[in-house]
Design a protein that fits this description.
Elements (H helix, E strand, L loop, with lengths): L2 E2 H7 L5 H9 L3 E3 L2 E2 L6 E2 L6 E3 L2 E2 L7 E6 L29 E2 L8 E7 L2 H8 L7 E7 L5 H9 L13 E6 L5 E6 L6 H8 L4 E9 L2 E2 L9 E3 L2 H6 L8
Parallel strand pairs: 9-13
Antiparallel strand pairs: 1-4, 2-3, 2-5, 5-6, 7-9, 7-15, 8-9, 10-12, 10-13, 11-12, 13-14
Amino acid sequence: MAERLDKILSSQGTATRREAQRLVRAGQVTVDGAVCRDPSFKAEPEQCEITVQGRPLRYRRHLYVMMNKPAGLLCVSRDPKAETVIDLLPPDLRRQGLFPAGRLDKDTVGLVIITDDGDFAHRMLAPKKEIVKRYHALIDGPVGEREIQAFAAGTSLEDGTLCRPASLRILEEAEHPLVEVAVTEGRYHQVKRMFVSVGRRVLRLKRISIGKLVLDPCLEEGECREMGPGECSAVFEQTVFL
């Protein structure tokens, strides 16, 4: 679909709309090799070659970023009083309209997807899709068959909310055991509240996967990278619940 040249540039984070107009009028933008000085010129960005100040424009209709969220950041688009996950994005992954698709608590770490594709986020978060999210949790006390069965049956939270059945398995036995939890919904502080309902407390929580998309082990906390098409589709692939 053809769009105004200044809009194309601003949508990619290359410049603001006003800056894009100045660049175009200054003759610093070419379309298929020809200088274009008209900001309102319409082009099909996926069908033509655009350069800005001699550098090819890599056009992406939507952006999808995988981040290994560190503790202490808000999982929102912006906040006037605190740092958010958007603030961690490097310049080449910044553009208007980005937001985290699904939230993690401020002190929870791990996989977060940042995008400007509202339809993608809606499909990922829709309860009827039953997309499995997996977490690793460090717990303050022993976990055994009682807790496993309670999760499998669907725990009742302190406000009476009944959760869907969830999977709980022990990864490391210890005074503070490491466990893996798999859920198909995303209620407020859900995993922590589920453990409270069985008399346990989460000491540390990390999301490791969404659907079949697994957090890249090469990403340190606070790092991020662009996702590929295969990774985007992996979010919606069915995975074994247990």
